[in-house]
Amino acid sequence: MSDSSIHALAGAAGGIGRSPLIFLSTRAAVETKSEPKSVYQAVLDIIKREGLAGLYSGLDSSLLGIAVTNGVYYYFYERTREALLRSKSSKALTTLESMLTGLIAGSATTIISNPIWVVQTSQAVRTMSSDSSVQVKKLGFFESAKNIIAKDGVGAFWRGIGPALILVMNPIIQYTVFEQLKNFLIARRTARLRVSGAKNVTATLSDWDFFLLGALSKLAATSFTYPYIVVKSRLQAGNTKYKSSLDGLFTIIKEEGVEGLYKGIGSKIVQSVLTAAILFAGQRRIFEITKSAVAPLVGAK
């Protein structure tokens, strides 16, 4: 089994726990009328109206989206990285080359996975405006996809692609902040070690350090780019009011105020920051565990 497939499986496995947060942030971002709610209040409202299973509406598309996103991103990242390394004598990429690699991989992943996230958004918002006394049938992945095609055509699968491509800068911001924080922390600790008499020693970071740095860098990136996540979610849900990403931002500010640009950011930050922190701290270990788990299954065939 290829490494890209293993990354996809690892992402999908972790996505089961993240699915309710993806669902909550999508609904909150699309909502335009209700008063702001905390994550706790949103969870209670959904459980009251739709039961505990309501938190997992669109689970199939969420898991597929996470798997495809992880697998495709890794594939394009590694292919681009290999191509750049073959063109130079050095065995490592510079910061700018790493950012370029991430930009290419992120753009390819966004274009390929956008149809899945359009379906996921459709599933997440299907029952949100319904009367609690009226039972609305929840649709599976393929039923939702057919419904979108019948209503808006195949082109609807790429709704919100503009802001989605802009959001490719999210991991670039995250990577840059992470590297700066990491370098600052190592330099500071190294200086303390040398002051205490340990010469020619460079400080190293623990898994806990990587966890915190991963969380802080993702917090910075998500906070900066979240308004585009709101616009993207609304476009993917079928909102035709916005002519472009920029028009969407100005329209939201005009109608809902600046706070409208940050609807659902609570659950999104919990989802994104926790995921990033865990991945930075143990990405290699998660990958190795998944690879070991699937190796017997692949070898048995």
Molecular structure report:
- The chain is 73% helix and 0% strand.
- The radius of gyration is 21 Å and the shape is globular.
- It starts with a helix and ends with a helix.
- By secondary structure, the chain is an all-alpha fold.
- The chain is built from ten helices and no strands.
| pLDDT averaged over residues | 78
Question: What is the CA-CA span between the terminal residues?
Answer: 11 Å
User: How many extended strands?
Assistant: 0
Query: From the alpha-carbon coordinates, what is the Rg to the nearest angstrom?
Result: 21 Å
What is the gist of this entry?
With 301 residues, this protein is an all-alpha fold.
Helices and strands in order, then pairings?
Elements: H1 3-30, H2 39-50, H3 59-86, H4 95-125, H5 141-152, H6 161-166, H7 169-195, H8 207-236, H9 245-256, H10 265-299
Helix pairs in contact: 1-3, 1-4, 1-10, 3-4, 4-5, 4-7, 7-8, 8-10
Please give a handful of descriptors for the protein shown:
301 residues; mainly alpha; single chain; globular
